[in-house]
């Protein structure tokens, strides 16, 4: 045990009236909702990068945090960081964690050294996972921070960078497989372009598709049983992304012939930056059959930037989990806190409290979503709006021709009148469950 958290004990559920900052008020992991404990529904995961690798910088200023595992270019400090990370996972009772390769090991002088360092950290993780029972939700390779990836990874104009990206993914997939990770994520932070003046867009998109096919081929070769996930990202920092949103990713999957092989990991902040709501992206992924997992955070809607704040908006979270529940809930996926402290939140306790608040918010939203779904009134209203499509004439019209549909208008003297969508009534209905 380290002394980073100043002797803080495990976070326990104390109920909504508790005055203890270091207690759950809404999240009781053993509370049974819709036949399962909340911990099995929500499948919380802690992000290694934001919690332990991020140093508090922003575009206008550098590091604000002081952590005992800095500088992060030494293996001894990487080992200490792992000690603190698993201590925090245990304090919070989080069943899962996630990592990028670059979060857990320092960059080596060569690729081989970086790979060996990753494998050494995997040895440590393996022991700590056995000791604590914490599991790996997913691993991923960071192919956006290092200078070599400034023009992309799989979409880079230099084939040597493509090869380096392939080696990075292979190494990280091997470790994820070894640690029994439940998913592997492809997160294309720079898979896009800044200007068409120097970009062959078709070539780059084709290369991104082929890279994805190679990843799936390797998954089957090594016998990895987890899901391959793509995380849609619309911009920031690349101006035009090839994986902009769920719909764009699905188009790539169809072109690659992988719509049955690859799913999506959807982040709330990325959904907003793409001009959508979180629940829109979740519902579309479900409709297309590619829903996998979520990154839970929120944006500051005034900043126009992916601020990765801890969730605190129960109504937003409830609508998101409503779509998750309609999709049948998580299978290999879960709720990963892709969220970070504010750069002025310097204390170790802040790191715990950010997650406590986020877990409480998710629990409150999830329980509201479960009440909505079990009550059925929202689904009844939705079904009633489309009831006309259940009739035989409507079904025949869909199976027939454009002329057949047009003929109905004159044959039946159709003069359709608008019908209220009753949005305000449904919004009031949702508020009853919060």
From TrEMBL:
Its cofactor is Mg(2+). One of its GO terms (cellular component) is cytoplasm. It is an enzyme of class 5 (isomerase). Keywords: Carbohydrate metabolism, Cytoplasm, Isomerase, Magnesium, Metal-binding, Xylose metabolism. Mg(2+) 1 binds at residues 231, 267, 295, 338. It comes from the Bacteria. The keyword Magnesium applies. GO terms for molecular function: magnesium ion binding; xylose isomerase activity. It is found in: Cytoplasm. It catalyses: alpha-D-xylose = alpha-D-xylulofuranose. PROSITE patterns: XYLOSE_ISOMERASE. Gene3D superfamilies: Divalent-metal-dependent TIM barrel enzymes (3.20.20.150). Binds 2 magnesium ions per subunit. The active site is at 100, 103. Mg(2+) 2 binds at residues 267, 270, 306, 308. Its EC number is 5.3.1.5. One of its GO terms (biological process) is D-xylose metabolic process. Its main location: cytoplasm. Belongs to the xylose isomerase family. Homotetramer. HAMAP family: Xylose_isom_A (MF_00455). PANTHER family: PTHR48408, XYLOSE ISOMERASE (PTHR48408:SF1). This is Xylose isomerase. It comes from Oceanicola granulosus (strain ATCC BAA-861 / DSM 15982 / KCTC 12143 / HTCC2516). The gene is xylA.
């Amino acid at each position: 045990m380290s002394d980073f958290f100043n002797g803080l004990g495990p976070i326990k559920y104390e109920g909504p009236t508790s005055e203890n900052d270091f207690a759950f008020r809404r999240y009781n992991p053993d509370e049974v909702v819709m036949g399962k404990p909340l911990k099995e529904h929500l499948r919380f995961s802690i992000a290694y990068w934001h919690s332990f690798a991020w140093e508090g910088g922003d575009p206008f200023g550098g590091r604000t945090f002081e952590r005992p595992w800095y500088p992060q270019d030494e293996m001894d400090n990487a080992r200490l960081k792992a000690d603190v990370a698993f201590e925090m996972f245990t304090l919070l009772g989080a069943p899962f964690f996630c990592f990028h390769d670059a979060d857990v090991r320092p960059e080596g002088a060569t690729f081989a050294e970086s790979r060996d360092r990753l494998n050494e950290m995997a040895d440590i993780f393996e022991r700590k996972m056995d000791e604590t029972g914490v599991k790996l939700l997913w691993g991923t390779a960071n192919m956006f921070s290092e200078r070599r990836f400034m023009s992309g990874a799989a979409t880079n104009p230099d084939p040597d960078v493509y090869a380096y990206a392939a080696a990075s993914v292979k190494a990280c997939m091997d470790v994820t497989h070894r640690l029994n990770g439940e998913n592997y994520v492809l997160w294309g932070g720079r898979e896009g372009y800044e200007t068409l003046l120097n970009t062959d867009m078709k070539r780059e998109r084709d290369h991104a598709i082929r890279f994805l096919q190679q990843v799936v081929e390797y998954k089957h070769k090594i016998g990895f049983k987890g899901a391959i996930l793509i995380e849609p990202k619309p911009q920031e920092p690349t101006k035009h992304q090839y994986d902009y949103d769920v719909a764009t990713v699905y188009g790539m999957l169809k072109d690659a012939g992988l719509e049955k092989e690859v799913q999506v990991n959807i982040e709330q902040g990325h959904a907003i930056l793409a001009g959508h709501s979180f629940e829109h992206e979740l519902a579309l992924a479900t409709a297309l059959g590619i829903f996998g997992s979520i990154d839970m955070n929120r944006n500051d809607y005034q900043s126009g930037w992916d601020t990765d704040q801890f969730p605190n908006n129960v109504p937003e979270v409830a609508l998101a989990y409503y779509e998750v529940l309609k999709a049948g809930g998580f299978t290999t996926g879960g709720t990963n806190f892709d969220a970070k402290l504010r750069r002025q939140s310097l204390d170790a306790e802040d790191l715990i409290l950010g997650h406590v608040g986020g877990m409480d918010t998710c629990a409150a939203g999830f329980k509201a979503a479960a009440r909505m779904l079990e009550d059925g009134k929202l689904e009844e209203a939705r079904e009633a709006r489309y009831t006309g499509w259940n009739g035989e004439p409507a079904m025949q019209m869909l199976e027939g021709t454009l002329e057949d549909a047009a003929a109905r208008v004159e044959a039946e003297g159709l003069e359709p009148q608008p019908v209220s969508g009753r949005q305000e009534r449904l919004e009031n209905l949702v508020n009853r469950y919060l």
